[in-house]
């Protein structure tokens, strides 16, 4: 079976969030299970992509309203990723240093999708499945099923995976002429709330819709940034499949980014060496519990509460707190100011550092995830893999993957997103930490939990097979 993943992100070539991790890992596991798996993504202007050995396999011109753009499809000549990667090179639109947040993102995303389908038309061997990821590729199911020039592709099943339904890619009907010719009687497939909504369009037109955890699928029918009614209506074709993590990359026994490698047998001594490095680097006392946050400093992650959480916690508990992340400038500023108030007990790194994130997973004592929205969450899966106890809100994938110690589990869970609930959870965590026998026993158990892509990839293969059989 030949599966083509269309995505704007794919780790390690382009990553902004969990989407990049998923598209960088799932295809590798699908390939190992016998699928011929390919990924097509934009050719961005970044050092990692620019260094790739490539060959041009297709060139054409696409029309976007009154404008036309030359584009090239490049095939990556490398076996390092474990699957084949293709790059869409549209110099005027895609060859830029960032993935998102440009004024012409609508034009960029639509052009990318048209280029992908024009290339598929040209290919001798067509994909058996086109797997689309988030709204940036959400028009593909519509284009395949409704646009005249793509009618030869109409029998190829399309799947949409929703990684985050908060972002939907809406744009005005003034840009309708970006869409190639189709029967205007079917314009309702593009519409949601009086505008063109690519995510809603994909939910309507894709053969199947998946989310990155079962709980997130259920939650979307009650809260989906305006798409609740649509998802409830389409629930028969929706399924939640929990994300996995790449155990080859995220492996404390072989991770080249950490100071001391370890497994379940030497987890205590190995983690202590990594904690020692963190404490020396950020001025902490190694004998105190270390609570850490890794992630984007945005509302969805509960990051706006972090300054008050840090303040409340350090006034009452003798612990250390370390925050790694970037995002809202006001939150960044408030977090930075707290360093003067709590010297040698609190520190922050504004930005993102891959090595530092690995070191935190390998050396901190607790990982904080007070999320308002968490479709799946990968940080808690990384933390479990490294023996780091997660403190999470029961939402989305966090609810599916972390069981509270009070329920014979291995994490600390709370239900609300407010300072007091998070503080109480941290306090419970420290009480758990003080029982070092039970704490260390739990650490040794959680590193053995299998959250690799094996199970999830098998579920996707079964889904692909069911679509092929239904043709």
From TrEMBL:
It is an enzyme of class 2 (transferase). Residues 2-232 form the Starch synthase catalytic domain. Its EC number is 2.4.1.21. It catalyses: [(1->4)-alpha-D-glucosyl](n) + ADP-alpha-D-glucose = [(1->4)-alpha-D-glucosyl](n+1) + ADP + H(+). Coiled coil: none annotated. One of its GO terms (biological process) is glycogen biosynthetic process. Transmembrane segments: none annotated. One of its GO terms (molecular function) is alpha-1,4-glucan glucosyltransferase (ADP-glucose donor) activity. InterPro entries: Glyco_trans_1, GS/SS, Starch_synth_cat_dom. Pathway: Glycan biosynthesis; glycogen biosynthesis. The keyword Iron-sulfur does not apply. Residues 282-442 form the Glycosyl transferase family domain. Keywords: Glycogen biosynthesis, Glycosyltransferase, Transferase. ADP-alpha-D-glucose binds at residue 15. The keyword Signal does not apply. CDD domains: GT5_Glycogen_synthase_DULL1-like (cd03791). Belongs to the glycosyltransferase 1 family. Bacterial/plant glycogen synthase subfamily. Synthesizes alpha-1,4-glucan chains using ADP-glucose. PANTHER family: ALPHA AMYLASE DOMAIN-CONTAINING PROTEIN, GRANULE-BOUND STARCH SYNTHASE 1, CHLOROPLASTIC/AMYLOPLASTIC. This is Glycogen synthase.
